[in-house]
Specification:
Elements lengths: L1 E3 L19 E6 L22 E2 L10 E3 L2 E6 L5 E8 L8 E2 L5 E2 L4 E3 L5 E4 L4 E2 L10 E4 L21 E6 L5 E6 L7 E5 L4 E3 L5 E2 L4 E5 L11 E3 L4 E14 L10 E8 L2 E2 L5 E4 L7 E6 L3 E2 L5 E9 L5 E3 L5 E9 L1
Parallel strand pairs: 7-9
Antiparallel strand pairs: 1-4, 2-3, 2-5, 5-6, 8-11, 9-10, 10-12, 13-14, 15-18, 15-28, 16-27, 17-26, 19-26, 20-24, 20-25, 20-27, 20-28, 21-22, 21-23, 21-26
């Protein structure tokens, strides 16, 4: 999948604020020093020189990427200014088909060749088939299925343990007892597009795409909330977001990104929060999780993102912004 190099009209400056005339961008296979082509056209038919040379005002020509790169930037005398890994996009879309050539991060979700969904357990997750790499991927159970993929004649749980006979591929029958923990119980939602994150009190992130939603925990009319319905007494909350700056700005001391779970519009006690220092030119992924919480009907939870990134506007990336409530106990 082709993608334009980020900030295509960026002007590269030195510490004195002067353009780095005829600076050089060297492109390599990610986390190696093996040269890798970039291209001057979207169809990836016209290779650029490597390095790509900046013009007389310190700006780059068209650069289209094919995958993920390590980039080293030098001045015209080949004195290195900086190096960055993981530059570019893998073309990854949450819940899309797994591809061996794409690099996945923690909590990324893909569909395997078996049509099952898997969640990545590791960063830099490359060429690890979800169906055969349990140390890198975990199977996401969908209501009506278990880890063997059964479900064509599954009888849903209706409030008590129920014994059912399930047809097997070899036409043999066996008896299973289905307990209340069978399948996914709760809600899992994500955002389909980026949204701006505010400084100070931050932004309660909004969600518009449902993976599953038992008991109407999520409602489109309140897109920032997961609300506890009647009959649920214990839950676990998890959320994630990839925060990124819209401008290339070097973070200052004291700059940060934060992701916090709010309950009923206020901080929880204790506070459930993840924080990180911004990375110049790259998204920063944050994941926050609560322990088992005692709840009552009507309690609602929100995922709040806040930034303090001097001189920058910050967004939360779509599809990598997600929120879930797992039901642990019912009354």
């Amino acid at each position: 999948m082709a993608e334009r190099y980020k900030n295509p009209v960026t002007q590269y400056m030195d510490d004195s604020g002067d353009p780095i005339v005829e600076g050089k961008l060297y492109f390599y296979e990610n986390k190696t020093l093996t040269a890798k082509n970039t291209y001057a056209d979207l169809e990836l038919t016209i290779p650029n020189s490597n390095p790509v040379i900046l013009d007389g005002s310190g700006r780059i020509p068209n650069i289209f990427l094919d995958g993920v790169y390590t980039v080293i930037f030098t001045n015209s005398d080949d004195v290195q200014e900086w190096q960055r890994d993981n530059v570019g996009e893998t073309g990854f879309i949450q819940f899309g088909e797994w591809e061996a050539t794409k690099t996945y991060g923690v909590a990324d979700i893909v569909q395997a060749s078996t049509l099952d969904y898997y969640r990545s357990l590791t960063d830099n997750n490359l060429n690890n088939n979800p169906t055969s790499s349990p140390s890198n991927w975990e199977l996401i159970l969908v209501v009506g299925e278990d880890a063997t993929g059964r479900g064509s004649d599954y009888v849903p749980w209706t409030g008590e343990s129920k014994t059912v006979t399930e047809g097997l591929d070899d036409h043999e029958a066996r008896i299973d007892t289905l307990e209340t923990g069978f399948g996914q119980q709760g809600a899992f939602v994500y955002a389909s597009s980026a949204q701006t994150v505010s400084a100070g009190v931050g932004t309660n992130l909004s969600f518009d795409t449902v993976v599953y939603n038992n008991d109407a925990i999520y409602a489109a009319g309140s897109p920032t909330r997961l609300t506890v319905p009647t009959g649920i007494t214990q839950v676990v909350l998890k959320g994630g977001a990839a925060l990124f700056s819209n401008t290339v700005v070097t973070p200052a001391s004291g700059d940060y990104y934060r992701l916090t779970i709010y309950k009923n519009g206020a901080l929880t006690t204790p506070v459930f929060r993840a924080s990180a220092f911004p990375i110049e030119g790259s998204p920063t992924s944050l994941i926050v999780e609560s322990p088992i919480l005692e709840v009552t009907a009507g309690d609602y939870f929100e995922l709040n993102a806040v930034e303090n990134f001097t001189g920058s506007t910050v967004d939360a990336a779509g599809a990598q912004t997600w929120f879930s409530m797992e039901v642990i106990q019912r009354s």
